[in-house]
Amino acid sequence: MGSTEGFDLIVIGCGPAGEKAGAQAAYFGKRVAIIERAQYMGGSCINTGTVPSKTLRESALYFSGLKQRGLYGIDYSLKENLTVHDFMHHEREVVDMERRRILKNLALHKIELVRGQASFEDCHTIAVSAADGIRRLKGDVILIATGSRPHRPAEISFDDVHTFDSDTFLQMDRIPKSLAVIGGGVIGCEYASIFMALGVEVILVDGRDRLLPFLDYEISNRLRDRFAGLGMHFWFNERPVKTENSAVGVKLCHRRFVLKGRGFFKGNEFASDASSAFLALTKALTLFFLAIPLAVLGKTA
Questions:
Q1: Cα dihedral sign, 220-298-171-270
Q2: Which of 73, 229, 258, 291 has its CA 20 to 30 A from that of 11?
Q3: Residue 33, strand partner residues
Q4: Pseudo-torsion of CA 184, 190, 194, 199, nearest 10°?
Q5: Residues 95-104: tens digit of each pLDDT
Q6: Mean pLDDT over residues 218-243, rounded?
């Protein structure tokens, strides 16, 4: 067993929270180490979530002319022969720039970046497993900033060719003719609206009776009406039973659920076809051992 290195603060995860916390501690003279197992820094915010989706939104508005139509009443059509490379180019440039910025920020604050998988040996000691062995770090304070990952239900056949989650969705090699988005939360609504702007036929499926139920009822309805005005279709109170991938697309088998009291009553089963399916479901960090109850959206209850 090698010697254990000491730090004032050890951060597990180099997403936005981990980076900012480490930089703030280093600014006040603390010795900081950040552990990250992924190839790239930034977490889902930089690599698969917030930054890519906002960049793609602007790209979709540009390629579709939707913003120009709204401002000037000019009827633009989607640029012919638009490829995924065209659409994703600006997103990749922005993401690469942000990854470089994070590494520069860590170096500027003299934060030690440790690559590998972190695990606790005791309340102040972390073992980091990497290809070159195990390194042990001891910290006065340890911050867990590991974020979340997409949930992959067993009944959904993810192949990352026709059926995707939010981490793999941006790896698609084509712009589909039709898209089924399962989940009417923030991520689902965002990507559904982006591909609607590109002229993709979008169906949004949700087991609840409205979009973004944490919003005021009138705001949620206004958003739904705006989406419907752009041509989006909705299946509320529907739950996917299974998906079947094929060379031509995805068959989504879903069951209608009728809300009765505090539960759902199962109705008839349906099957629908789409070129691609995207599941906007998130699995949060498991915190049961910390006895922290979680409410909607991962907020502490």
A1: negative
A2: 291
A3: 10, 112
A4: 10
A5: 999 999 999 9
A6: 91
Cα 31 to Cα 173: distance, rounded to the nearest angstrom: 43
- CA distances 260 to 113, 237, 257, 264, Å, are 52, 11, 9, 6
Contacts with 48 (C-beta within 8 Å, 6 or more apart), sequence order: 166, 167, 169, 170
Its pTM surpasses 0.85: no
Backbone angles phi, psi at 109, to 5 degrees: -95, 5
Distances, alpha carbon 111 to alpha carbons 8, 32, 127, in Å: 11, 5, 18
Say if CB 178 and CB 276 are below 8 A apart: yes
d(CA 22, CA 32): 6
Distance in angstroms (rounded) separating the CA atoms of residues 225 and 200: 18
Residue whose C-alpha is closest to residue 163's, from 269, 272, 244: 244
Give the DSSP H or E segment for 114.
strand 112-115
Alpha carbon distances (Å) from 61 to 64, 134, 248: 5, 48, 28
In terms of DSSP bridges, do strands 112-115 and 32-36 run parallel, antiparallel, or are they unpaired?
parallel
Binned at pLDDT 50, 70 and 90, residue 107 comes out as: very high
pLDDT at 61 over 70: yes
Rounded-to-integer distance, Cα 40 and Cα 54, Å: 19
Sheet strands (E) in 131-212 = 133-144, 149-150, 163-165, 178-182, 201-206
Q: Which helix (H) or strand (E) holds 193?
A: helix 186-197
Confidence of residue 263 (pLDDT cuts 50, 70, 90): very low
